[in-house]
Amino acid sequence: MDSYISWLVAGVIMIALELVLPGAILGILGYCAMMWGVYGLMGKGMTAIYTVGGVTVVLGVFLLWFINRFPDTWIGRHFTLGQRSTTDQGYVSNEIQENLVGQMGIAHSPLRPAGVALIDGNYVDVITEGDFVKAGTEITVVQVVGGRNIVRPTNK
């Protein structure tokens, strides 16, 4: 009987540690230890199995509900970022350089398929149409889509 109380206490301690050391491993092990303690304290019978199973199902449903609803709660709004980086608010992840179309340059790094090219004295992030291009190869910008500068080797 005392060993099952120890399992219960160990489970509570592991779950408490999970709050400080995130990663879910201690939480899962703590829950299993707690349920083993409950199972043993209830006499290891069918009633104990039904109780542990019922608690597990109810807790699982509650956790799914809580995870879906948490960002909308008053405390969840303090934990989650409410702002979004959108183009309407002026956010641009990469500068759109449509003036590069047709310009030639040199692959500064290997393009596998993305990399850096030296175009008109500036280092520019580029991506090929899928081919790998060695560093030092002459390239031409064939298209600019959003912030992606698409290049191909000049000799193609």
From TrEMBL:
It is a multi-pass membrane protein. The chain crosses the membrane at residues 7-36, 48-67. Keywords: Membrane, Transmembrane, Transmembrane helix. Pfam families: NfeD (PF01957). It comes from the Bacteria. Residues 98-153 form the NfeD-like C-terminal domain. The keyword Transmembrane applies. Gene3D superfamilies: Nucleic acid-binding proteins. It is found in: Membrane. PANTHER family: INNER MEMBRANE PROTEIN YBBJ. This is NfeD family protein. It comes from Veillonella absiana.
